[in-house]
Amino acid sequence: MAIHLSSVFFNKTSISPPVFQHRRRPPLTVFATASAAPPPSSPPTIQIVGGKTASWYGNGNMDSSNAIESFEEEYDWADLETDLYHWTKTLRPVQWYPGHIAKTERELKEQLKLMDVVIEVRDARIPMSTSHPQMDSWLGNRKRILVLNREDMISSADRNAWADYYGRQGIKVVFSNGQLGMGTMKLGRLAKSVAAGVNMKRRARGLLPRAVRAGIVGYPNVGKSSLINRLLKRRMCPAAPRPGVTRVLKWVRFGNDLELLDSPGIIPMRMSDQSAAIKLAICDDIGERSYDFTDVAGVLVQMLSKLPTANKNILWERYKIDSDGRCGKTFIHKLAVQLFNGDEHQAAFRVLSDFRKGRLGMIALERPPVHSRVA
Questions:
Q1: With bands split at pLDDT 50, 70 and 90, how would you rate the model's confidence at 162?
Q2: In angstroms, what CA-CA distances link 52 with 55, 162, 165, 170, 348?
Q3: Comparing C-alpha atoms, which of 187, 158, 130 is closest to residue 6?
Q4: Strands 3-4, 46-47: parallel, antiparallel or unpaired by DSSP?
Q5: Cβ distance 194 to 117 under 8 Å?
Q6: Which one of 44, 199, 214, 324 has the largest count of C-beta atoms within 10 Å of its C-beta?
Q7: Helix (H, G, I), strand (E, B) or coil at 372
């Protein structure tokens, strides 16, 4: 398996999630029905991704026919965001803010004063939705490395689109796979090189050099602890495929010249953007008690029928059940009757689990927004 890795640090650059541009048209379908009661809790090759400038989803040099195709795709993704906004309006709001996160935020702000570089980890399937709205203000001008983890769950076209998007802002991004360890050693070397100036300044003042301090931050379950464990080649930080496993800040040493801070996932106290919240639930980046499985799986079914880059027949190929893309809950009901004796919770869990484990293919739920058109 070829792993694409682009790794350049960025300094004094703000990464603010841009706003999607929506096409002016009514939504195709509203995801109606009231939500049900909450369910019970239950050596690969490393290749550098190019930095070609582009204006539409990573396609920088286009003839007129390609421009037309990109124009169509642009509005497909924008339409999907518009529809998703309307689908989520009638659902139970997704909110999750366990007590340890508030404590983590207070402690993290204190630890930031000790950090030479910050490594922000996001989910490669939803980089926008896993961007904390307050991260820029917390970090200020501190040096940062942006990591998109789970890069094995998105296509090369998705990776190139995000690399081009950040490249147009003067930012390049590291794609990694924390489960298999791809990109972690490069990340460690990059962290030390980013903060090399720290010890240069210490020497100039007659002080001895010290280990570089790097903090790893991000949303719950985006793979922060897994990255550290792979980097250290031993299990130093608790990690599991569910949110909320790490609950305390912990410094660990990597060799003699790098210290890493593993931190619990941080998330906004209130999720005002329910489209982002639903995507967090779909990708298992938020506690499962915060959402209704049937609602979330139904939205996923509708998204899979409309995603411009997804295989429109994937649901039929996997479950042998037709989906018209207009009512995800109808599909979940059919699946429940066919496989789970009418248990819709189990059917919804199966669909979400299949997506999260990559059984439905390499599928990104977001693409970079478009700010300008090709002249």
A1: very high
A2: 10, 11, 10, 11, 41
A3: 187
A4: parallel
A5: yes
A6: 214
A7: coil
- Identify the weakest region by mean pLDDT among 44-58, 172-186, 295-309, 346-360: 44-58
Place of tokens 């702000």: 109
What order of strands is seen across the sheet that includes strand 117-123? 174-176, 143-149, 117-123, 212-218, 258-262, 250-254
**What backbone phi and psi angles, to 5 degrees, belong to 342?**
85, 5
User: Residue 224 is encoded by which pair of tokens?
Assistant: 């922060």
pTM of structure: 0.74
Neighbours of 98 (CB within 10 A): 18
User: Which string of DSSP letters, residue by residue, matches 70-130?
Assistant: HHHHHHHHHHHHHHHHHHHHTSPP-----HHHHHHHHHHHHHGGG-SEEEEEEETT-TTTT
Beta bridge partners of 261: 215, 251
Task: Transcribe 276-344 into DSSP letters.
Answer: HHHHHHHTT-S-GGGS-HHHHHHHHHHHHHH-TTS-TTHHHHHHS----SS-HHHHHHHHHHHHSTT-H
Distance separating alpha carbons of residues 279 and 129, to the nearest angstrom: 7
Distance CA 171, CA 173 (A): 7
